[in-house]
Amino acid sequence: MKRCSLFFVVFLFVTVRLFAGSEALKEKLQVIDGICDIEQLESEHYSAKYVCKVKQFLNHKDTAAGFFTQRVIVNHVGFDRPTVLVTEGYGAGYALRAQYQDELSRLFNMNVVFVEHRYFLQSTPDPLNWDYLTAENSAYDLHHVLTLFKNIYPSKWVSSGVSKGGQTTLLYRAYFPDDVDFSVPYVAPWNRGIEDGRHEVFLKHVGTKKERKRIEQFQKTVLKKRGEILPLLTNYCNKKKLEFRISMDEVLDYTILEYDFAFWQWGTALSAIPSSSAEPKVLFDHLMAVSSPDYFAENQPYVSFNVQAARELGYYGYDTAPFRKWLHIRSAKGYFNRIMVPQNVSVTFDPALYHKVYSFLEKNDPKMIFIYGEIDPWSATRIQDFKGKKNLQIYIQPRGSHGTRISTMPEELKTKIIAQINIWLKE
Questions:
Q1: CA distance 283 to 281
Q2: CA within 13 Å, CB half, 195
Q3: Tell me: the pLDDT tens digits for 62-95?
Q4: Verdict on whether the full-model pTM lies above 0.90
């Protein structure tokens, strides 16, 4: 009985402390002008978790354009702890889950202020004016969020994001170099054109010759069996209610052209590729598992990204030469604007953002740790090494994919990265 009583007392004490911390966070959020719609969430890792909305200008350089509200998720550890500003490049839906935990937060016991990118999910303005979806406006969004939340978390701040979120971390530092103490972008490309050109070269050399040959053999096999594969693809798209502005023959072409990029991006096992003699259904199922046609369909969740890529973030092209004999299309040049940018949107790529960020890194030595995977095609346009930089550091995981993180690094590199971050946190 005594042990049970002691356990109950400890449990009650911890529960009261957690409740008090949660209520304290809510009170602090409620008194900040510009934060609204505060709702409590469940969390398996944080003592308190809230989702709220932050009022943002549509155009930070012209406030007469009006406002929209941006979704922000707060994961609380302690008011005296450092905070990770997650510069998400897409929607914040997954961060609402009770299981969500940011890697830096887990490794270094940090709070998390997670910012959904403008024009995604609940942070989409109404009416929708694509003119305001710019990197500069997204950087000002983050600056405003950080300014508000520093009232709650006055300790050190770290910006971090994955993939397009890593790009957002990078461009945010270029616009506001001194907002955070340091940054950790994960698998962040920095493209210089809508069809950059470096990705195709990368795919010709990634992995081993044997691996590349096996992948190309699969692509050619599917194209050669177009007559048997096409009905399967048509049925698949009909069931998923996918609509395209191109023919189903073209959909198959682009799905095949995308295959090797997707294969390496997610580190698919070579053993997963069916043999050339496999039944058409087996070939098709593998193709769908690696390179689904959803990517090229109309009205998909990534339409906002497509506008950004076409305007200033850039993207990649396809090398059609190895497959020209079996392709329905004559060329893939210009495909992105033709089939992936919304039909009512006209955008021309402007390399000014690429040059702004490059110049920032070249002329400065910001405290930034870049994490990349060796076989990830997005690393084809990774940030390059700049001579004489002490703070700007790049780490590449051998055979690492787009899922590369600090925790997946070889022990020696992981230890080095963690030690560096601990130094910066103590400075």
A1: 5
A2: 11
A3: 999 999 999 999 999 999 999 999 999 999 999 9
A4: yes
Chain centre to alpha carbon of residue 393: 20
What's the sign of the alpha-carbon dihedral 163, 169, 170, 175?
A: positive
Which token pair is 22?
């949660």
CA distance 313 to 190: 7
Sign of the CA dihedral 115, 121, 125, 128? Answer: positive
Same domain, 333 and 185: no
Q: b/e string for 295-304 if b means 16 or more Cβ within 10 A?
A: ebbeeeebbb
> Do both 137 and 253 map to the same domain?
no
3-class DSSP string for 123-142: HCCCCCCHHHCCHHHHHHHH
Residues 50, 188: one domain? Answer: yes
Give the DSSP H/E element, type plus range, for residue 43: none
DSSP-derived secondary structure letter, 34: T
CATH number at residue 413: 3.40.50.1820
Cβ 118 vs Cβ 133: under 8 Å = yes
Amino acid identity of 353?
L
Domain that holds residue 212: 198-339
* Domain end (from 306, 339, 372): 339
Does residue 114 form part of some domain? yes
Strand partners, 372: 396
Pairing relation of β-strands 67-76 and 83-87?
unpaired
pLDDT at position 16 is: 45
Residue 70 bridge partners (DSSP): 54
Dump the DSSP string for 203-248: HTTSS-HHHHHHHHHHHHHHHHTHHHHHHHHHHHHHHTT---SS-H
